């Protein structure tokens, strides 16, 4: 999990989206094991001991990505896709 966090700050949009997808998978895995399986792994083992401050950093970074303004060479479609994706991710994990 911690390896994905720096990828949210990369310049390449596809890397940020892939990191976001990885984070969603980790949260899905944690929710599934907590809600459906009595012998499931605790969230800490799935996330790599996620601290509250790390969680808040991830939320903050995703909020920034969900409202990011475009720069030179950024297509409106790609930017809209990124905003929508991270907005949906935030709705899921918050």
From TrEMBL:
Source organism of the structure:
Nymphaea colorata (pocket water lily)
Q: Which Pfam families match?
A: IFRD
Know the name of this protein? Interferon-related developmental regulator N-terminal domain-containing protein
Q: Which residue numbers delimit the Interferon-related developmental regulator N-terminal domain?
A: 2-94
The leader peptide range reads none
Record-linked InterPro entries:
IFRD, Interferon-rel_develop_reg_N
